Amino acid sequence: MFLIAGPCAIEGEQMVLDTAAELQQVCRDLDIPLYFKSSFDKANRTSSSSGRGVGMTEGLRILAEVKQRYGLPILTDVHESYQCAPVAEIAEVLQIPAFLSRQTDLLQAAARTGRIVNIKKGQFMAPWDMSGAIAKCREVAPQGKVWLTERGSSFGYGNLVVDMTSLVRMREYGCPIVFDATHSVQQPSSAQGVTGGNRELVPPLMRAALAVGIDGLFLEVHPDPDKAISDAANQLRLTDIRRLLTEAKVFDELAHKTR
């Protein structure tokens, strides 16, 4: 199991560096490969007045500092095609947000960079719909690496549900499968103009996905999540991450023994 983790949005350099340092130490102790994740822009906020982050120029500078200081591979979102090339100079993995997972030009621009493309399954998509997203990438980069990430499906208004069979279905396409445990407990647009959530449900969903069998685990982590500018209700507390990953590793090892 590899881990994708970090604060949802880049809110400032020192917070990002402190979070990266702690995550690196925990993952070293537990022998878990880590990709550091944080977004320079949250372009799909519920309200235009919500904080979006520090922007691409400053965000990439901070992510480059994380990479230089800690030697961590970087994963970050791209929202528009023109962003892919400059982001690929810093990031090992370009992530396609769930709402954009059908955007042909964006998928292909990301694939052309030669970096890994992590496609988050849209909340409105069936797992087998992801075959089209993979095909779009492979049309322009036949040997390119694609990851698929499950992050829950819309279930009525303001709620998500995770169908664990989607992890099995998407594996049929031969791509590494990631489970995003923190976005899966979102409650979209449910908290007076912002997205709500319930971080207390992360551990049971994480255990279930690990038992089914995944290649990567995605967790958004913040030193003080209740004060975060994005996903405050579902990000995990940095102080809880060692305990949670210790548990995750047990479930991951058990799942591999029984395959």
Oligomer: single chain
| CATH architecture field | Alpha-Beta Barrel
- Number of helical regions: 8
Strand order of the largest sheet: 1-2-3-4-5-6-9-12
> Which strand-content bin applies to the residues?
15-25%
For the record, the CATH class is: Alpha Beta
Tally of individual domains: 1
Compact summary:
36% of the residues lie in helices and 19% in strands. The chain has helices at 13-30, 56-70, 84-88, 104-112, 130-140, 165-171, 202-212, 241-258, and strands at residues 2-6, 34-37, 74-77, 93-96, 116-120, 146-150, 153-154, 160-161, 177-180, 186-187, 196-197, 216-222, 236-237. The longest helix has 18 residues, at 13-30.
Question: Could you walk me through the main structural features you see in this protein, from its secondary elements to its overall organization?
Answer:
This protein has a single domain, classed as TIM Barrel, CATH 3.20.20.70. Helices cover 36% and strands 19% of the residues. It has 8 helices and 13 strands. The strands form 3 sheets. The chain has an 8-stranded parallel beta barrel with strand order 1-2-3-4-5-6-9-12, surrounded by 6 helices. β7 and β8 form a beta hairpin. The model has no long low-confidence stretch (mean pLDDT 94).
